[in-house]
Amino acid sequence: MNLIGRTTRKRYYEDPYLAHCSAQVLRSNADYVELDSTVAYPEGGGQESDRGVIHLPDGRCIRFVEAKRMYGYAPRLEGFPDIQIDGVIWHMVHPDDRSVAAGIEEGVSVDIEIDIERRARLTLSHTASHLVYVGIGLFRPDAIPGILGCHIKPEGARFDFKVAERFTPEEVEAITIFANDLVCRNAPVRVESHEVHADARIWRCEAHQMPCGGTHLTSTGSIGLLKIRRKCLGTGKERLSCEFVDAALDLSPYQGRTPL
Ligand SMILES: [Zn+2]
User: Fold this and answer.
1) Which ranges does the record mark as transmembrane (predicted)?
2) Separation of 96 CA from ligand 1 center, angstroms?
3) Which CATH class is domain 9-114?
């Protein structure tokens, strides 16, 4: 348990395709709404946050433009460097809905839903980013310790590195071929939780694995063929970006799904 003694139930880990659920308001003000459970994935691990709407019982709505994990703690688990678990999730209120959010009483029952197209794009982008990252580890292992960050957006993903040597066109091509081979095989993707800490999760695809708390496809095929571009950001700094021009976005798993 974290310092504030409460956690938000993270429905996106129980069912990553659940697009809505009912919840109870624990805190609400003009800036954020905290619920006892949520389907909204907060920004984390470079993946941008979900957006969506909280429906009040009287028919009014509060749009949230971001979900943030707050008050998590580091459990110091072997194999999970830098991880933050538990914590609560704040749904950051759209500027035009601040007065509505400020007037909500604690304990009110609401329904929360996410923008499923945005979630589906982020999930695809995030899964693709793993394939690229594994490829970088194979063909440029020296770059991995120098990673400066990653940014996973709906339309693409990118990694920045501090490296002594730039990525050559041949290396970028080898990484691209590796990632696209996994796409063409429609390789299954699995995510497993730590047996004690459910927020500590491992992504697996064939023989590859890494700790990751993001949202992922269940297989790689719908990513479509990846394109990877290299950009020099200055002396010793390189960026690899990937985009998904052939992606097959499938919203059907999210539609008509009901909470367990
Ligand atoms: Zn991931």
Assistant:
1) none
2) 33
3) mainly beta
